[in-house]
Design goal:
There is one protein chain. By secondary structure, the protein is of the alpha/beta class. Helices cover 33% and strands 24% of the residues. Strands 1-11-10-4-9-8-7 form a 7-stranded mixed sheet, with helices on both faces. Strand 10 and strand 11 form a beta hairpin. Helix 2 runs parallel beside helix 4, helix 4 runs parallel beside helix 5 and helix 6 packs across helix 7. The radius of gyration is 18 Å and the shape is globular. The two termini are 19 Å apart.
């Protein structure tokens, strides 16, 4: 991987003491042997436990493909992904996924959608119900538990989708443009909500987004991908304490630096 690891002042940070959670080794992806550039060039990547990492880049650079490989939803052409030292062979096994479209079951209430996730990890009906109530409380929708997805706003639907993923009790939360379909105000609210949930139930998060400010506001580290073939072109540590100000001069400087790579 050809990349720069930098803070806002350009200095290199020491490696975190947290153990590596996700290890990507020589992963390459080709969907067709037609002579065109690979969707993903061979890349290496390490993501540490409880780290919040965002991936940004132009459309078509391979962000979603990389996330789907991490999730085990598609297999790499070459290379491998390991979680806690174990090779990823498919979905599940401690990985929860949240997509741009919430994918809730329309025939189940918010509470039942979340309970479904809890039952999927082996909890009985009573325990799954208790877990659903705890998560409804966590996401601030306790009074909405008996409503169906069609009766919820877009932001509420995404909260339920996140809660359902958390009900699986995953070690890793993989999120593909989860707020991309929301209006700007709701999107900002959901960023705050995600950080609150993340701080309460610490998970390793990999978050794909087109939004530079969103990535910098949320993340410990931002990976910048370039296309043709998809590769990690730069890597930035966001060494700013939380809660962060969206108009902090250092945030703006870092956004300008990331934008230079995208240009």
């Amino acid at each position: 991987m050809t990349a720069s690891l930098a803070t806002i002042d350009g200095s290199v940070l020491p490696a975190t003491s947290m153990p590596v959670k996700i290890e990507v080794s020589g992963v390459e992806k080709r969907f067709a042997d037609d002579g065109k550039p690979a969707t993903l060039a061979p890349l290496d990547l390490a993501i540490r436990e409880n780290e919040f990492v965002s991936i940004v880049g132009r459309s078509g650079c391979g962000k979603t493909t990389l996330l789907n490989i991490l999730a085990g939803l598609i297999a790499p052409t070459r290379g491998e992904v390991r979680v806690d030292g174990q090779r990823v062979e498919g979905p599940g096994r401690g990985k929860g996924v949240v997509f741009q479209q919430h994918a809730l079951f329309p025939w189940l209430t918010a509470r039942a959608n979340i309970a479904f996730g809890a039952k999927s990890r082996g909890l009985d009906t009573a325990a799954a119900g208790r877990e659903a109530d705890q998560l409804l409380e966590l996401i601030g929708l306790m009074s909405f538990g008996d409503l169906y997805p069609s009766q919820l706003s877009g932001g509420q639907q995404q909260r339920v989708a996140i809660a359902r993923a958390l009900a699986l009790d995953p070690h890793i939360l993989l999120m593909d443009e989860p707020f991309g379909a929301l209006d700007e105000i709701t999107r900002l609210e959901m960023q705050e909500e995600l950080l609150r949930v993340w701080s309460s139930r610490r998970k390793t998060v990999v978050f794909v987004t087109h939004g530079l400010s969103e990535a910098l506001y949320l993340s410990d580290r931002v990976l910048v991908m370039a296309p043709s073939p998809g590769r990690i072109a730069a890597e930035y540590v966001v060494d700013l304490p939380r809660p962060r100000s969206r108009v902090d001069r250092r945030m703006i400087e870092l956004q300008d630096a990331v934008w230079e790579h995208l240009k």
